[in-house]
Amino acid sequence: MIKVGIVGGSGYTGVELLRLLSRHPEVQLTAITSRGDAGTRVDEMFPSLRGVVDLAFTAPDQSNLNGCDVVFFATPHGVAMSHAASLLASGVRIIDLAADFRLKDTAEFEKWYKMPHSCPEILAEAVYGLAEINREAIKKARVIGLPGCYPTSVQLGFAPLLKQGKPLVNEAGLIADCKSGVSGAGRRASVGSLFAESSDNFHAYGVKGHRHLPEIVQGLKAITGNTREIGLTFVPHLTPMIRGIHSTLYATIVPGCESIDYQKLYEDFYQDDPFVDVMPAGAHPETRSVRSSNYLRIAVHRPMDGNILVILVVEDNLVKGAAGQGVQCMNLMFGFEETMGLKVVPVLP
Amino acid sequence: MIKVGIVGGSGYTGVELLRLLSRHPEVQLTAITSRGDAGTRVDEMFPSLRGVVDLAFTAPDQSNLNGCDVVFFATPHGVAMSHAASLLASGVRIIDLAADFRLKDTAEFEKWYKMPHSCPEILAEAVYGLAEINREAIKKARVIGLPGCYPTSVQLGFAPLLKQGKPLVNEAGLIADCKSGVSGAGRRASVGSLFAESSDNFHAYGVKGHRHLPEIVQGLKAITGNTREIGLTFVPHLTPMIRGIHSTLYATIVPGCESIDYQKLYEDFYQDDPFVDVMPAGAHPETRSVRSSNYLRIAVHRPMDGNILVILVVEDNLVKGAAGQGVQCMNLMFGFEETMGLKVVPVLP
Amino acid sequence: MIKVGIVGGSGYTGVELLRLLSRHPEVQLTAITSRGDAGTRVDEMFPSLRGVVDLAFTAPDQSNLNGCDVVFFATPHGVAMSHAASLLASGVRIIDLAADFRLKDTAEFEKWYKMPHSCPEILAEAVYGLAEINREAIKKARVIGLPGCYPTSVQLGFAPLLKQGKPLVNEAGLIADCKSGVSGAGRRASVGSLFAESSDNFHAYGVKGHRHLPEIVQGLKAITGNTREIGLTFVPHLTPMIRGIHSTLYATIVPGCESIDYQKLYEDFYQDDPFVDVMPAGAHPETRSVRSSNYLRIAVHRPMDGNILVILVVEDNLVKGAAGQGVQCMNLMFGFEETMGLKVVPVLP
Amino acid sequence: MIKVGIVGGSGYTGVELLRLLSRHPEVQLTAITSRGDAGTRVDEMFPSLRGVVDLAFTAPDQSNLNGCDVVFFATPHGVAMSHAASLLASGVRIIDLAADFRLKDTAEFEKWYKMPHSCPEILAEAVYGLAEINREAIKKARVIGLPGCYPTSVQLGFAPLLKQGKPLVNEAGLIADCKSGVSGAGRRASVGSLFAESSDNFHAYGVKGHRHLPEIVQGLKAITGNTREIGLTFVPHLTPMIRGIHSTLYATIVPGCESIDYQKLYEDFYQDDPFVDVMPAGAHPETRSVRSSNYLRIAVHRPMDGNILVILVVEDNLVKGAAGQGVQCMNLMFGFEETMGLKVVPVLP
After folding, report:
1. Checking CA distances to D212, which of B74, B76, B166, B196 falls within 20 to 30 Å?
2. What is the per-residue pLDDT across D301-345, written as a single tens digit (0 to 9) for each?
3. Mean pLDDT for all residues in chain D
4. Chain D contact for A343 (CB, 8 A cutoff)
5. Which chain C residues contact residue A199 at CB under 8 A?
6. What is the pLDDT of residues C102-141, one digit of tens each?
7. Which tens digit of pLDDT belongs to each residue from D214-235?
8. Domains of chain B: which residue ranges?
9. Which positions in chain B touch C182 (Cβ < 8 Å)?
10. Residue A61: which pLDDT band, with cuts at 50, 70 and 90?
11. What is the CATH number of domain B2-147+321-333?
C-alpha cells in the first residue's frame, strides 16, 4: 500500500486519476489539492465519485504532499517543476502529466511553453514515461515526464518502423494526421470548447506549429537510438467527441524494404506489451473500442499494396494518453504488476 | 464459481453483460449465443472485448445452456419464454432482460406485445427483478423478469412516496416525463436511430401509449401493496446521447401531508440500498454521473415550496436499467455480495 | 429600406440576427457593435458570414446608432435599458432580446435579475414581442421586450387553452417540462457548457426557480386577460444538442370540458399565424423540423383519452426563441410582410 | 420557369434538393418519386417541409418525368442509367447524384460498383459536374455525372497545384486524409450509422480501397490535362457530426518550386468562382462555416516553411458535395445565374 497525492485534482486528468486510483488495490489516496476549490468535497464537484472518494480538495501548501510515496501533477505546465526539488528531497517520487519534464532541451521548452525551466538538473534525470519504450528506466525513475496525448499515439504508431538498425521508411517525410476529442482541451472555460462551438463541427488547428511537435520529434529520434534525424508533419484536428484520439500515420517505404511483412513486424514488436493491441490485418480500429481503458490499438495498412504505409492508432486521450499511462508508470516504479488497477474493460457503446 | 450463459449476446445489453460478467470474480462465462452470428468471435464483433472475452458466438441449440447455473436472455421479447421450461427442468435459473416475465396479467402482455404468452405457469412464479423492492423474493427465485429501463427509474423514483400506509400524493395524477439515450432502441438497424436522424434533435414518442406504461403501473400499484389504484401519464422522449435515462417525476402532495420532510423520507427509504443514491437537497443529478455504472441517483425538489414534488432520477439505461440490474439479481440469487462485480466507477467525462 | 443596428453582435443571437437580416430585402445593416471586439471584422469572428456581411464590429459609443431606424439589443440584461431613452429621443425604435423590457413589475425584475430597473417609464410603454398574442400592439410599439426562448414555447403552447372565457384546464396546476439545446446558454465561456461536460449528458437545472418562470406566469395570466391566476411548475433541462427547445406541457382538463375537440381548438386558434404549425393529431414534432427557421410546431395529445392534455411544442431557440421573433416584430413595426426575410426552410438533417 | 423532377426523393440528398429547389425562383417542382413511399406526402416524411412542398411521392413509372425540363437522380447507383435513354429521347436533361456517369472507363465502373454499365454511349457524352473545372462543358451538357462528396473536396483542393504546365508537387505521392459526417452514408438503416455506434467515436474505413479513389484520380489527372499520372493515397474517416467534410491534403513541393507564393496561387485560381472561398493565410476552416450552404472553403498551409503543403478544405457534403452542386450545374445548363437559389447563409452555430 502506497500513499498517493494528486496536485490539481479538479481537471479531467485529475478526475480520471481518481477513477483509476480509487480502485487500485495498492493505493491509498492521501491528498488531492486544488488551489481554487480547497474545502470543496471531491464528490461534490464530481458526483460520479460519490461513495468512491471520501476526501475534500485541499490547498497545496496545506497538504502533506511530502508524506506521500508518489505525487501526480495534473496541473498546468510549470507547476510540477516548482514543487519538484522539495518533494524529491523528502523522498517523494513525481509523475507529471504536464510538459515540465518532457522536452530534454530547455531552449525548446522555453520556446514552446513561454516560460523558463526552473530545474534543469531535475529535468536531466527525468524519464519520459512511455512504458513500451522506456520500461526499464521508468522502474528506477524518481521523476516521470508523462508523454502528451498525441505524442503517445504517434510514437507508439511509428516505433516499430523506426526502432531498426536502418531506415525502413522515409524518416524525413513522416506525416501524422491526428484527431482528438474535445476533452483534450481540458476542463477550462473557453469559447472554442463550448458544446455549441465544437459539436457538429470539425477543424484542424495549430497547423503552423503545435507544442506536441518537438516532443514527438524528440521521441521518434530517441526511438532510432538518436542515430537519425526525423522530419514530421503533424496536423491535429478537433472532432466532436468527448474522449479519444485517432492518429492516421503515413510513411513511405524506402526502396529495398517493400517485401517486409509489416503486419508481423508490428505484432512481434508489441508481443509483450499488455496495453498495445496490434489488430488483425485489414482492421479499422475505433476510438470507442478503448474508451475509458488504458489500451491502445494499432492497425497496419498498405493501400493498393503500394509503397505508402498507413498506420491507424486509437487511444483514450485521458487514459493511455494521460492518467492511465501515469498509473502504468507508477506500477512499474513501485514493483506492482504493470496492469494493476488498469484492467477496466472499455465501455462500448 | 458459477457457469453463466447469455442468449442473444450481440446487442447492447449483451455486450454490457459481457463487460460486467467478464470481470466478475465468481462467474465463468460458458456460452454466448447469437443465431445470426454463430461462429463469429465475440471480440471480432466487439473489439472492446479483445483480450477480455475469448469465446465465439454459438447457435442457441448448439450451446450447452442446460449445463449452466444461470442463463441471461438479452433477446427480443418472446425468446426467453420459449426456452424457460426446458432450462428450469435442468435446474438452470433464468434472468430475462426482455418483457416475457414482467407483466403478471397475460392479457396485458398479449395486448402490448402482440404475441400469446406461452408459459403462464412459469410467469406466475417469476419474480420482478427490482432488487430494492423485491430483494428477498429475488434471493429465492428461479425466474427473474428484469424491469425495463424506464420502469426502473420511475418506480424507484416514486417508491418512497407510495410505499406508505396512506397516500401522501395524488396517486391518480402522477406524471413521468422521461428522456432516454438512443442505445435504448437497441442495436438494430432502423432509420429513426441513425446518427443523422437522432443527433442534434429531440422529440417525444409513444405519447398515445408505450409498452412500459402497464409495467410501471403494475409496479407502482404493487409498491402500495396492491391496495390502491395508480393513474400515470408517461411521456418518453429520445435525447441525443448514447446512454442514460433522466426521469422527471411530478406528484401533487395531498392536503395534510405538506409538512413531511420528503428529503428525509427518501434518504431513510434507501439507506440500505447500495446502488440508490439520494443526493443532497437542491441537487440536479446528471446522467453522466452514473455512466457505465449500476448506480441510480435521485434528487427531491419542491419548487417554490408549493405542493408539487419534482423528483429527478438518473440511471444508465444499459446498466441499472438492464445488464447491471441483472447481475445484481444474480448476486442475490447465488448468495454473493450484492455489489460483487458492480463496483465500476462511473466514467466522467 | 430601413437602417438597422445591432448592439452586441458577437453572441449567438447576434450572429443569428446577422444571418437573417443580411438577406432581408428591406434592411440595410448599418452598425454592429461589440465592446470587446471593436475593430474585428464580423466575418473574421464568424467565417460563415464571409461574402455576406462586410462590416467590422464597432464600439457602441463610436457607432451612429441614433441614425438607425431600429436597434436590436443582443446583449446581457441591463444594457438595453441604459440606451433606451437616448435612442427613443432620436426616434429610433428598440427591440431588446434580453430581459430589460419583459417583466412589467420592476420589483419582480429586480428580484430575479439582481439589478435596479433604470427606466420604468419606458418599461411601461414597452410591448411584449409575442406576435401571435400581441400583433396589433407590436405594430405600434416603439420598444419591444422580446420573449425568452422558453417563455415563447410555453406561452404559445398553453395559449389556446387559456385564452378562453372560462378555464378549460386546472390553471393552478400547469406543468412545463422543457428541454433546451446548449446554445441557449450563450457564447460565453463557462465550464457547464463545455462540450466535454454537456455532450452525452442530460440534467435539469434551476428547479428551485428560474428567471423565465415569472415571465411565463405573467404572460399566461395576460393571455387569460389578466382575469385568472396561474400556477405553473417549470422545470428546464439541458440536452446535448446545439439548437432547439422541446417543451412538454401538462394540463388537467376540468370537469365539463372533456368533450371539447382540443385538436380543432388549436388549429382554429392558430389558423392565421404564419409561423405556428399545429401538426396533425398523433404527431410527435422533432426539434430538427424547425432547425434554423422561425417556425414553431405544436402537437396536441390526450393519452389514453384521459383528462390530462399533453402539448408538445418545438422551436429553434435562436430563431423563434430569439432573433427570428425579433425580425418578425420588426416586420410588423415597419409595415413589411410578417414573413419577410424569414422564409428559410428548416435544415434537415 | 423550368419543370424539375426528382427521382428518389426520400434520402438525404433528396430532401436537400427539395430544400433548395423549393425556394429557387425559376423552378417548378413537378414530380418527386420514391418507389417505396409512393402516396406518402413529402411533408409527412419530412415535416421540415410543411408549408413548403405541397406534393406527394409518386411511383417512378406513374410520374410524368418525360414532361420535365430536367430530372435529378438522388438514387442508388444504377438507377439513372436505366432511365437515361428514354429521358434524353424526350428532351429531358439529367443530373445524376449517384455514380452512373462519373467514371469514364466502364471497366473501372464495373470493378468498383459491381454492375455492368448499361449505356456507355450516354456515358461518353456525360459531363462531370464540377463547375469550377468544367463550367463551359456543363452549360452545354445534356447529362451530368455529379462528383461524389469526397471527390469534390479533394479535386478542388488540389486543382490549383495540378492545373499547371509542369508539376509543382510530387504528383505520385499525394495524400488525402478525409473526414466525413455520418449523413454521407445516406438515410438507409444500417448498424454502423446508428447514433449509438457512431456518436462519441471516430474511425477510418475503406483504407484498402474506396469507390471514390478511382473517381478522384480520374479527376486529378483530367485537371493536369491528362498529361501526367497521379498517385493518391486516400483515407476516409467517419466523424460524429451530421454534415460536413474536412479534407486534409498533403503534397510535397518539388525542387525548384519552393519560392512560389502558394497562397496567391490559390487566390488567383479561384477568383471568379462564387462558391470557392480561399481563406486568409493561417486560417483553419471549420465545417460548420459552410453548414447548409454551397460554399467550399480552402486554407493553404506550409508548416515550418518546409516543403510539405497542407491544404485544408471544408464543404457541406449534402450541398456542395451533392444537392447544391447539382443546382449549380442546373443553373449553368439553363442559363440562370450560377448562384441562383444558392445564396443560403451558412447556419452557425
Report:
1. B196
2. 999 999 999 999 999 999 999 999 999 999 999 999 999 999 999
3. 97
4. no
5. 182, 195, 199, 240-242
6. 999 999 999 999 999 999 999 999 999 999 999 999 999 9
7. 999 999 999 999 999 999 999 9
8. 2-147+321-333, 150-315
9. none
10. confident
11. 3.40.50.720
Residues of chain B with Cβ-Cβ distance to C240 below 8 Å are 239-241
Nearest residue in chain A measured CA to CA from B295: A48
> What is the predicted pLDDT for the residue at C63?
81
Reduced 3-state DSSP string for chain B: CEEEEEECCCCHHHHHHHHHHCCCCCEEEEEEECCCCCCCEHHHHCHHHCCCCCCECECHHHCCHHHCCEEEECCCCCHHHHHHHHHHHCCCEEEECCCCCCCCCHHHHHHHHCCCCCCHHHHHHCEECCHHHHHHHHHCCCEEECCCHHHHHHHHHHHHHHCCCCCCECCCCEEEEEEECHHHHCCCCCHHHEHHHHCCCCEECCCCCCCHHHHHHHHHHHHCCCCCCCCEEEEEEECCCCCCEEEEEEEEECCCCCCCCHHHHHHHHCCCCCCEEECCCCCCCCHHHHCCCCCEEEEEECHHHCCEEEEEEEECCCCCCCHHHHHHHHHHHCCCCCCCCCCCCCCCC
Chain A residue with minimal CA distance to C238? A195
Most D-contacting residue of C22, C46, C48 (CB-CB within 10 A), to test interface: C48
- Catalytic residue positions of C, numbered: 149
Distance separating alpha carbons of residues C163 and D156, to the nearest angstrom: 57
**A150-315: CATH homologous superfamily?**
Dihydrodipicolinate Reductase; domain 2 (3.30.360.10)
Q: B47 vs A286: CB contact, 8 Å cut-off?
A: yes
Q: Which chains touch A (3 or more CB pairs under 8 A)?
A: B, C, D
| C301 has a chain B CB within 8 A of its CB | yes
- Tell me the count of B-C CB pairs closer than 8 A: 144
Confidence of residue B62 (pLDDT cuts 50, 70, 90): confident
A289/B48 Cβ within 8 A = yes
Using one digit for the tens of pLDDT, what is the confidence trace for B2-34?
999 999 999 999 999 999 999 999 999 999 999
Taking residues C76-99, report their average pLDDT: 97
- Can you tell me the mean pLDDT for D54-70? 92
CA–CA separation, B50 vs A276, rounded Å? 11
Contacting residues of A for D203, CB less than 8 Å apart: 246, 284-287, 312, 314
Tell me the chain A residues in contact with residue C202 when contact means C-beta distances shorter than 8 Å.
none
Fold of D2-125: Rossmann fold (3.40.50)
CATH topology of domain C2-146+322-333: Rossmann fold (3.40.50)
Contact B48 A242 (CB under 8 A): no
pLDDT digits (tens, 9 = 90+) for C282-308: 999 999 999 999 999 999 999 999 999
The pLDDT tens digits of the residues spanning D106-153 come to: 999 999 999 999 999 999 999 999 999 999 999 999 999 999 999 999
- pLDDT for position C236: 98
Question: Does any CB of chain B come closer than 8 Å to the CB of residue C197?
Answer: yes
Whether residues B306 and C208 touch (CB distance < 8 A) is answered with no
Please tell me if residue C203 touches chain A, with a CB cutoff of 8 Å.
no
Instruction: Decide if D246 touches C, using CB distance below 8 A.
Output: no
Q: Å from D286 to nearest chain B CA?
A: 18
| Closest chain C residue to the Cα of D346, Cα to Cα | C48
pLDDT in tens, A154-195: 999 999 999 999 999 999 999 999 999 999 999 999 999 999
Angle between helix A149-162 and A131-140 (nearest 10): 110
Nearest CA in chain D to A181: D200
Minimal Cβ distance to D199: which of B188, B189, B199: B199
3-state secondary structure of A319: coil
